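Please predict the structure of the following assembly.
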Amino acid sequence: EAQVTQNPRYLITVTGKKLTVTCSQNMNHEYMSWYRQDPGLGLRQIYYSMNVEVTDKGDVPEGYKVSRKEKRNFPLILESPSPNQTSLYFCASSRGSYNEQFFGPGTRLTVL
Amino acid sequence: KQEVTQIPAALSVPEGENLVLNCSFTDSAIYNLQWFRQDPGKGLTSLLLIQSSQREQTSGRLNASLDKSSGRSTLYIAASQPGDSATYLCAVRLSGGTSYGKLTFGQGTILTVHP
């Protein structure tokens, strides 16, 4: 089944404790992206990647890092999480940057 | 800066009604527009993608139209069912520039279809 998977689905952590949210797609897509969803602010892009080893900032990149060492994986790294990063995170992928995007199931992160 | 607005914010209808969800965007230089549905606690499911050169797209009971010059799209749902209850999101993708595939989302319309 073609899909985008994220892990973990739920995470509660404390301020400053580094964490990684994994994202993997099995559709051989070149484009991958991370979004966060917050009440009243909607979905906003954090980072995107147009291909392996090619990443760039979205609208709200502060406090996040990404890497794209393999085509299928695009992990989101929070080096020192803070409470304002409490949010619902979505990974998405598409064949190319202008094609239909498919989303993962989301990761609900709480930073205490 | 592209802004996307969806009206109404919430809609409650009886089963069987035909309904229209509206989406407007401020920058008409879009490459395409994508409609999603989001169920509580779940991810986004892509419903329809309309290219800027298209006027409409259909999938089953769903029909999406696009009027790029006026900055509007509508999602028409025919013969609504309780299973259609979800949040519907509209997202646009600008053409050119440095946006590279970024989707700009509206706030969504929360749809409730009651039996």
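Residues 17 and 87 of chain A are 16 Å apart (CA to CA). Chain A touches chain B through 27 residues (CB under 8 Å).
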